[in-house]
Amino acid sequence: MLSSPRSPSAPLGAIGAELAALILAACCAGCDTPGELLCDRCRAQLSPTPSDFTTPGGLRVRAALTYDAVAARCIRRLKGDGETILARPLGDALAGVLWAALTPAAFAVPVPTGRSAFRRRGYRVPELLMRRAGVAPQRLLLPARPTADQRGLGAQERAENVRGSMRVRARGAGTEVVLVDDVVTTGATFDEAARVLGSAGFRVVAAVALAATPLHRRLIGNPPETRRK
Asked: For a Cys staple, 77 with which of 63, 83, 88, 142, CB 3.0–4.6 Å?
């Protein structure tokens, strides 16, 4: 018995049904409301509320969000659960501070992702966020060695942990650089990136992060100046 031919639109219909099922089975990344990937109330809480502070090395940093509540849950799901769809609203938040820091001549350089983290996720979080923010990442920095988990470390311990953990893949001639990372605590990673780039002839003029942890205020004793939009 011959089977009836399938319509060319059948595969598309099946994909649409699967996507609809995914959305219905999903829950909001921010508040667990069922049937939504990110509800309107939680999306509104990802609007940038920039804060500024200075790293121990003297580098000025601006963060788009505070790493708590909805922002922290969304970032954890992007980094830990592979929910890359959240890179779009998070990238929109990053864009609010990244574009303001860039000049036409500056390179936007992401902090490098460790090899094990890249193998585990299959993507580099800072680079993904930058692309969603509409900025092309310039991958000047590469990991040079593994680092220990930064959680639980103090400011000095963090600085020692990241020292020598990066290398530069090119030489600069005074080219301006804006560093980009997803989450900043003490700024030790930014300081090390700036040191390595400076030794290669680049000039780091600013650093931006998607979010700053509340912990950074206690560890570096540098209360941020917050600007709300």
From this structure: 83
